[in-house]
Amino acid sequence: MQPESKLWSLVLLVLMGTELTQVLPANPEESWQVYSSAQDSEGRCICTVVAPQQAMCSRDARTKQLRQLLEKVQNMTQSIQVLDQRTQRDLQYVEKMEVQLRGLETKFRQVEESHKQNIAKQYKAIKAKMEELRPLIPVLEEYKADAKLVMQFKAEVQNLTSVLSELQEEMGAYDYEELQNRVSDLEERLRACMQKLACGKLTGISDPVTIKTSGSRFGSWMTDPLAPDGDTRVWYMDGYHNNRFVREYKSMADFVTSDNFTSHRLPHPWSGTGQVVYNGSIYYNKFQSHIIIKFDFKTSSISKSRPLDYAGYNNMYHYAWGGHSDIDLMVDEGGLWAVYATNQNAGNIVISKLNPNTLQVIKSWTTNHPKRSAGESFIICGTLYVTNGYTGGTKVYYAFHTNSSTYEYIDIPFQTTYSHISMLDYNPKDRALYAWNNGHQVLYNVTLFHVIRSDEL
Ligand SMILES: *[C@@H]1O[C@H](CO)[C@@H](O)[C@H](O)[C@H]1NC(C)=O
Ligand SMILES: *[C@@H]1O[C@H](CO)[C@@H](O)[C@H](O)[C@H]1NC(C)=O
Ligand SMILES: *[C@@H]1O[C@H](CO)[C@@H](O)[C@H](O)[C@H]1NC(C)=O
Ligand SMILES: *[C@@H]1O[C@H](CO)[C@@H](O)[C@H](O)[C@H]1NC(C)=O
Ligand SMILES: *[C@@H]1O[C@H](CO)[C@@H](O)[C@H](O)[C@H]1NC(C)=O
Ligand SMILES: *[C@@H]1O[C@H](CO)[C@@H](O)[C@H](O)[C@H]1NC(C)=O
């Protein structure tokens, strides 16, 4: 790695270190507060209670409206707290970096002005260092803008909270519609801000951590990115064809320490290692077909199945390692995707966004990358990343951005400790890559880089 990119990764790692899930509030049923509760002279409820069970107030439409506003504000407050903690912590780090940078710049100018022969060498060294660091300055400035935005949100939410609290005492003194608009507006902006803070471009992959050693050379394993907090069930599929038994481990801890699992028998065997578990269902490619099946674990039944039109199957357009890996299903921040190839696209990779309920294609993108020469691929924030191989000196070297339908060549190396990789998928909840590495279940953390431009806010 170049020293420059090392430095970048360092800063970016700090910027992106918080998991998306932490931004979401915990169970609101538990975290709500009672603001006030009172009865009028006839015993009619006039409360503006924000509590889990306040059905007694539901007759009063205005109170209901208020309650919803308060709930929204409450939700926002929690989100902002997380954002705030993160930006404050990161800002300290970023500010320290900035001081160092500016100091270096000053020193550099002094040296430049003095023109002394004997420091020519020193001058060169500092100049080189400066050139490495210069791109960081705009990043620092962008980051400070993020922090300022969070402060602004905080002030607005505080204002709304106090306005809403005043309402307890003086019902009807405020314009509800205006209040409602302010809450909606704030909510929308906050959501957009968080989405941007949470997403970004892949800039680094950590060293792998081996979670477990089990199974054959080929297989797949995963957790459900939409599982509720505390549900860390692990789903495990050994082999790439002619198997139909999915193992369920009660938790990640169980998976690591035991071989205690429940088996689910699928109605049809699978093909390849492209399965994905999403919102309580497994999506997989039915053996010797281009049919996608959605199987609901709760009801133990197929809730939908549909052919993926034009998709090559049966080792027609597999990944470089073979193994019937023609159709790869995956999930990112934006939902469910299928990655495959078609004759129409001359065997090059096609990316399709799927409706998770109907399995219909919402939109497709055709790339210029041959599927058969791709090692593996995964999607993060709507960008497809392709590796150059599946053993030894592997790197992510091709990226296709669905937002702009453009591609670029990149160079992000990662370790494949046990040689053969037969599955590599991103989990947006953990911000991790799950890999099946020659009978080892392995995790990688990813570093994502985002810049919020002020004109996007
Ligand atoms: C508050 O957040 C919870 C959990 O995310 C959600 O179910 C609820 O609808 C939110 N309330 C409002 C008013 O947005
Ligand atoms: C809240 O903001 C409004 C206008 O945006 C302002 O009139 C009001 O004084 C503010 N309230 C508080 C408590 O800051
Ligand atoms: C598309 O996404 C990539 C990576 O996330 C980003 O670098 C690029 O600026 C985006 N392009 C547009 C047009 O939004
Ligand atoms: C295996 O899991 C079951 C239920 O999931 C539990 O009752 C049992 O005690 C576990 N056995 C071991 C050895 O952990
Ligand atoms: C997940 O499933 C639940 C019910 O099974 C459904 O209400 C919810 O909309 C689903 N979420 C997504 C993102 O599909
Ligand atoms: C990823 O990062 C988290 C938080 O820093 C850490 O707990 C975890 O062990 C890391 N996982 C890997 C695979 O490096």
UniProtKB/TrEMBL annotation:
Pfam families reported in the protein's UniProt record: Noelin-1, OLF
Main location: secreted
SUPFAM superfamilies per the UniProt record, alphabetical: YVTN repeat-like/Quinoprotein amine dehydrogenase
Signal peptide range in chain numbering: 1-25
InterPro entries: Noelin_dom, Olfac-like_dom, Olfactomedin-like_domain, Quino_amine_DH_bsu
Keywords carried by this UniProt record: Coiled coil, Disulfide bond, Glycoprotein, Secreted, Signal, Synapse
Localisation: Secreted; Synapse
Disulfide bond annotation, renumbered to this chain: C199-C381
Coiled-coil region list: 66-114, 150-196
Native source organism of the sequence: Conger conger (Conger eel)
Domain Olfactomedin-like: 198-450
GO BP, one annotated term: signal transduction
Protein name per its UniProtKB record: Olfactomedin-like domain-containing protein
Residue ranges crossing the lipid bilayer per the database entry: none
GO cellular component: extracellular space; synapse
